[in-house]
Design brief:
This protein is of the alpha+beta class and 247 residues long. The protein has a five-stranded mixed sheet. Strands 6, 7, 8, 9 and 10 form a five-stranded antiparallel sheet that branches. It starts with 27 loop residues before the first strand and ends with a helix. It binds adenosine-5'-diphosphate (ADP). Adenosine-5'-diphosphate (ADP) binds next to helix 2 and helix 3.
């Protein structure tokens, strides 16, 4: 049964359907290094989104003619599981998934010292197990951690978050229902220590003033998420240290 969009997504007190305030992120849970057979991996829950990222590489590239003489080829696959959305989705890659794979690759590549590994491939797999809006952003946040976990030299982590306009209010971190029922959505990816934006998209209508406010909201959201990202990365190494000390 298709879900009906309620008439009001935000009440007169500025409270959203899931109880959040306008500038509040969804609760998140992040874990790093959870897959034994990948070189690096991470998992994120952001609200109802559940996304797994795995990284292989740098490794030999096949077919060889794709190899780049001066840097590693970053390959990204964003994929939604058939059970990730309300109506079963075909497991075959859709146009949207092909486009998002490119968008994610371009958002992650500036953070990686690809020039250190000419002729190799770095492969990033992003598996959306459950989707509820903002999966490209949560996918970037978790993929960046998987790259760090694989020990790939990076300039900075990349963290991403969206902001937009819903029922006339400017809001942070839109859910699926807010995305569909809202009037604008702006996904942003940031390298926080370098203050460099690696992804900026916008869907919908905003005035120039609103655009600036929404951009700032998304930047603030990224900065908050970056704290959780760093904690998750540190937690993995604390766990490794404790395991070594116990041996
Ligand atoms: P993002 O997930 O980055 O916001 P979109 O704006 O394209 O990307 O999608 C918004 C949301 O729409 C997704 O997070 C997901 O909840 C939902 N969605 C995407 N593709 C499908 C699909 N094939 N069937 C049902 N819902 C979908």
């Amino acid at each position: 049964m298709p879900r009906k969009t309620p008439e009001k997504l935000i009440d007169e007190n500025g409270t959203r359907l899931d109880g959040r305030t306008l500038n509040q992120l969804r609760p998140s849970k992040i874990e790093v290094g959870i897959l034994a057979n990948a070189d690096g991996s991470a998992y994120i829950e952001q609200g109802k989104n559940k996304i797994l990222a795995a990284v292989y590489g740098p490794r030999e590239l096949h077919p060889k003619h794709l190899a780049l003489p001066d840097r590693a080829l970053l390959q990204c696959r964003y994929h939604m599981a058939p059970f990730s959305v309300q109506e079963r989705k075909s497991p075959a890659p859709s146009r949207r998934e092909i486009e998002l794979s490119k968008v994610l690759r371009e958002a992650l590549e500036p953070s990686i010292f690809v020039e250190y590994y000419p002729r190799t491939s770095i492969d990033v797999f992003i598996e959306v197990l459950q989707a509820d809006g903002g999966t490209r952003c949560a996918g970037i946040t978790v993929a960046s951690l998987a790259l760090a976990d694989a020990g790939i030299p990076m300039r900075d982590l990349v963290v991403a978050c969206s902001a937009g306009k819903v029922d006339g209010h400017l809001v942070l971190d839109l859910t699926d229902i807010e995305d569909k029922g809202g009037t604008a959505d702006l996904p942003l990816a940031l390298m926080p220590n370098l203050s460099a934006i690696t992804l900026l998209q916008m869907d919908g209508d905003l005035t120039v003033d609103e655009f600036e406010q929404v951009l700032n909201l998304a930047v603030e959201g990224c900065k908050q998420l970056h704290v959780f990202q760093k904690e998750a990365l540190k937690a993995k190494y604390v766990a490794v240290k404790e395991a070594v000390e116990e041996e």
